[in-house]
Amino acid sequence: MPDSDQPAAVRLDGKVISEQVRSELTQKVAEFKKNHPTFTPKLVAIQVGERSDSSLYIRQKSKACKEIGISFEHVQLPDDIQQAELDAHMDKINNDPTIHGVIVQLPVPDHLSTKHIVHSICPEKDVDGFHAENIGHLSKRATEPFFNSCTPMGCIELLKRYDIAVAGKQAVVVGRSDIVGSPVAMMLNNLDATVTLCHSKTPDIEAKVREADILVVAIGKPEFVKASWVKPGAVVIDVGMNAKDDPTKKSGYRWVGD
Questions:
Q1: Active-site annotation holds for 96
Q2: In Å, what is the CA distance from 111 to each residue of 120, 173, 177, 254?
Q3: What are the two backbone dihedrals, phi and then psi, of residue 61, each rounded to the nearest 5 degrees?
Q4: Is residue 128 annotated as part of the catalytic site, yes or no?
Q5: Nearest alpha carbon to residue 178 among 101, 118, 235
Q6: Closest Cα partner for 187 from 145, 222, 219, 226?
Q7: What is the pLDDT of residues 41-64, one digit of tens each?
Q8: Which residues pair with 125 in a beta bridge?
Q9: Active-site residue among 47, 105, 125, 126?
Q10: Residue in 47, 125, 126, 128 annotated catalytic
Q11: d(CA 69, CA 39)
Q12: Does a cis peptide bond (omega within 30 degrees of 0) precede residue 123?
């Protein structure tokens, strides 16, 4: 028999929230264009090589921009491009006043330096929020970055849209990547949560997870966190997306979280 004292679980529906955000942004962009008729916001996505997953992500970005009313340009570069040539492209984009945001789709081929590329983007156009200047501003309570990393920002937006109190809560983040774990930990801290950041060297992660009022999992390991680790009433945001073999599926696999 179910425990009647336990509150029913509420699913945080990211798809619904995404549709709401896009609708609101469409209205904001239209209003801005109305007030500034000569201005058109523009995003450029640079892709090195032809990875199918990268191409998919860029098509999704292009579709989102079109829906919202933002101009989008896809710059496709050969996978054997050298660092100096890529730098020249970045310099041109950084100095083009008609371009307001740039994304370099990662990963890039091994002969290129991801660190160098990230820091070659003008911070004011770094819509991924990966530049050290933007990360540095995020870590300070007195300043704000030009842009926040999108996936961590999505986690925070979920909490806000569902009116989930963050201040004073015990927040546990599992995974410390520059893309998700570390930025979302800083964002939660800025919202006055008490944050524990766990990683591969953290002893007894299970015990840390059991303390969480808010749990964000982005460790890149399929089904790493077990349901038994999560205390009743905790808020869980699972960022992970992993393909797991499943012969019962037509595709031969199914998607699972972390």
A1: no
A2: 16, 32, 22, 33
A3: -65, -40
A4: yes
A5: 118
A6: 145
A7: 999 999 999 988 889 889 999 999
A8: none
A9: 105
A10: 128
A11: 12
A12: no
Q: What is the pLDDT of residues 172-211, one digit of tens each?
A: 999 999 889 999 999 999 999 999 999 989 999 999 999 9
The token pair at 51 is 């990875």
CA distances (Å), 159 to each of 11, 89, 103, 187, 251, in order?
12, 38, 26, 12, 33
Predicted TM-score of the model (pTM): 0.87
CA 173 – CA 205 distance, rounded (Å): 10
DSSP for residue 172: E
3-state SS assignment for residue 182: helix
Residue positions counted in the chain: 258
Q: Which amino acid is at 26?
A: T
Nearest in space to 125 (alpha carbons), one of 105, 151, 100, 144:
100
Catalytic residue among 61, 125, 169, 208: 61
**CA 230, CA 172: separation in Å to the nearest integer?**
11
